[in-house]
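Annual report, structural modelling task.

Input specification for the adenosine monophosphate complex:
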Amino acid sequence: MDSAYQHILIAADFSSHTDEVCEKARALAERYQATLSLCHIVEDFPLTDFAYEPMISVDIDMRDALLEAGRKQLAKLAEKIHIPPAQQWVECGSPGHDIVRIADDKQVDLIVVGSHGRHGIKLLLGSTANAVLHHAHCDVLAVRLRDD
Ligand code: AMP
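The model returned the following structure:
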């Protein structure tokens, strides 16, 4: 099948909706016999806007500790859905930008993210899902999430 996805990337934020997003991606990967990968971006906070200086700098030790915590969380999630260590990536940065960069680097052809429909278009505009949709060079599946 020419249109089959070969490499599907899940962007995981460890929210309560993560399992739902993973399940959609896992089912698609099974259907297309695609490689399934997982990534998490440890936000370089305080959020650095290009127009401003960061208000507090994150020192190297703190960054390493956050990366390590992210790796542990991702490994736990990966184990549940049988994704091997070679397909798990944790990096520091800005989710909207770095999810797309990882997808480009790893030749992903479908990115799967969650999207909060409940808040309407206003919130979607500033969201990670929106940033990924706008900047990705491959297909993006935004899984509609509903908060109870
Ligand atoms: P949000 O815009 O924060 O509601 O996030 C929407 C979706 O983007 C989440 O369901 C995840 O799929 C993805 N996402 C958000 N933050 C991150 C992150 N730090 N690392 C990886 N994926 C993320």
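The helical segments are 18-32, 60-80, 95-105, 120-125, 128-135.
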